[in-house]
Specification:
With 321 residues, the chain is α/β, with parallel strands linked by helices. The protein is built from 14 helices and six strands. 36% of the residues are buried.
């Protein structure tokens, strides 16, 4: 058997405020990288302070991709990110450099490393009705149905549980007339991109303190003025402004919430976001992902990443997928 091909690049992921961007710049001092942002909000022009977008001097020193792609009143999907990232990765590798993906948007990363198959078109109304019905059923009954309709999917889903995944497999089988495994057999929309993934984590209590301190710094650096300017230009319903760290301040602009209350809600919501991200990265990353203690110094962590990349990297060339 031949050896496994080298990964197409490195990824540093983890919850918000764990120090991913600072670590990426440390890695850039050890490897010839170009950075790809894996952040669903940094794609928006003008969302700079509230997304902790990389500093101008960092962007001048190390090429960055995935920043400032669309206006705040537009949408940018995970599928589009995957298509763009494949192109960036291929171009970076063709230049003889290392793609370094950095961010906390897990579904962006998964769209690249575990691309969706070509799912059949399902009528939205019928799907909503069926999902509501299935969610009301006992799990044991759903599994009996799934074993009858799609034994392979049932065998794969049972060990990890997950009502949403079970419901999805049932929806596809019942509404399309063919099991999920049939659609999987047709192949994904694109080939998976193999990455050397590092997951950065910080103790929840320490992370909460970091989140609070960072939000205070963002406010001091002009977050409120940024929210006011963006809302005035694009309107309060702009998709980018309905996200954590921005949406909490819209009532302040309307005069229905004090800045102190808006800040308190933003802190709470950002902590909740971090908890959701932490859970996602704990359970949804590839088994090969390497866990890093975010309490270690960025220099020490960067040495570990550079060493690991040196152990697995092959010669630069065309990216996987």
């Amino acid at each position: 058997m031949g050896s496994r091909p080298a990964p197409a690049g490195v990824a540093i992921v983890g919850p918000t405020a764990t120090g991913k961007s600072a670590l990426a710049m440390e890695v850039a001092g050890r490897l010839p990288v170009e950075i790809i942002s894996v952040d669903s909000r940094q794609v928006y022009r003008g969302l700079d302070v509230g997304t902790a977008k990389p500093r101008a001097e960092d962007r001048r020193g190390v090429p960055h991709h995935g920043l400032d792609l669309v206006d705040p009143d537009q949408r940018y999907s995970a599928g589009r990110f995957a298509r763009d990232a494949r192109r960036w990765i291929a171009d970076i590798r063709a230049r003889g450099r290392v793609p370094l993906l950095v961010g906390g948007t897990g579904f962006f990363l998964r769209a690249l490393t575990d691309p969706l198959f070509r799912e059949p078109t399902l009528a939205p109304g019928r799907r909503r009705s069926l999902r509501a019905y299935l969610q009301a059923l006992p799990r044991a009954r759903r599994l009996r149905w799934l074993r009858a309709l799609d034994p392979e999917a049932a065998a794969r889903l049972e060990p990890g549980g997950g009502t949403q995944r079970e419901a999805r497999a049932l929806e596809v089988a019942l509404l399309s007339g063919r099991p999920l495994t049939h659609w999987h057999a047709l192949g994904p929309a694109a080939k998976a991109v193999d990455l050397l993934v590092f997951a950065l984590d910080v103790d929840p209590a320490r992370l909460a303190a970091r989140i609070d301190a960072r939000l205070d710094a963002m406010i001091a650096n002009g977050l409120l003025e940024e929210v006011r300017s963006l809302a005035g230009r694009y309107g309060m319903q702009a998709p980018a402004l309905r996200t954590t760290g921005y949406g909490e301040f819209l009532p302040w602009l309307e005069g229905t919430r004090s800045v102190e209350e808006a800040t308190r809600v933003a802190r709470t919501n950002t902590r909740r976001l971090a908890r959701r991200q932490r859970t996602w990265f704990r359970h949804q990353l590839p088994a090969s992902a390497r866990r890093l203690d975010g309490e270690r110094s960025a220099s020490s962590l960067a040495e570990s990443i550079a060493s690991a990349w040196g152990d697995v990297a092959g010669p630069p060339g065309e990216a996987t997928g």
